[in-house]
């Protein structure tokens, strides 16, 4: 085993344990993790697109918005967090367009802000939030693992050769199947059965996870970056590790807030109650 692979395995195991521990703890612990992920994503995304140099004012506005969003996430004020993201993105877009540098700073605010907010809201505070987060995590990890190994083993037509040459349709299909199986498995482990929409939503979250992976690959290729950063030994940056997770969390957050179920107040309760039959 090469030293690089050993380092990758060790850091991956440590990160996995820490993430699962904070998911289990929930509350302030997980909100802190979601906020940290948001801040690091904004730092990495802004660095990749060169926002500090190209649009310093828009970048500063973005940082103010992200920090304000973090405060609102930590204090469980999702509506205020959403407002901070929207206002910050609008301000960064206005400043970026005036300078001729485009809306990349605004994109960084939206991507990072919704990452932190969606993760925090899906986990929530109680037992339903734990179930919902485990549901999302199981789908994402299973999708990513099977897509990688089956894609390498089976090969075949490329999924998006101009964006990520290593990804194949065979990997995407087997990854999606694994994600659906994992989602159903979590539902069965929590309760015998689950909502009739369970396989469809698990498939949607798996597809969102793969879309998130492609989006990050496109951004890195667009700006000539190999990794989002070097913050995680052997793995690159935070974006490299959570690109699929945050897109799946976006999708789960939208599902949890769009599906009407008046008896539950939070996105986590909504998702768990509707999809897992609770």
UniProtKB/TrEMBL annotation:
Location in or out of the cell: Cell membrane
GO cellular component, one term: plasma membrane
Pfam families with a match to the protein in the record: CTP_transf_1
Transcription found in the keyword field: no
Domain of life, source organism: Bacteria
GO terms, molecular function: phosphatidate cytidylyltransferase activity
Enzyme Commission numbers on file: 2.7.7.41
BP GO annotations: CDP-diacylglycerol biosynthetic process
Enzyme class: transferase
Keywords linked to the UniProt accession: Cell membrane, Lipid biosynthesis, Lipid metabolism, Membrane, Nucleotidyltransferase, Phospholipid biosynthesis, Phospholipid metabolism, Transferase, Transmembrane, Transmembrane helix
Associated pathway: Phospholipid metabolism; CDP-diacylglycerol biosynthesis; CDP-diacylglycerol from sn-glycerol 3-phosphate: step 3/3; Lipid metabolism
Main localization, broad class: membrane
Reaction catalyzed: a 1,2-diacyl-sn-glycero-3-phosphate + CTP + H(+) = a CDP-1,2-diacyl-sn-glycerol + diphosphate
Membrane topology of the entry: Multi-pass membrane protein
PROSITE patterns named in the record: CDS
Transmembrane segments: 12-41, 61-94, 101-120, 126-150, 171-190
Membership in a protein family: Belongs to the CDS family.
Family annotation (PANTHER family): PHOSPHATIDATE CYTIDYLYLTRANSFERASE
Protein name per UniProt: Phosphatidate cytidylyltransferase
Organism listed in the record: Hoeflea phototrophica (strain DSM 17068 / NCIMB 14078 / DFL-43)
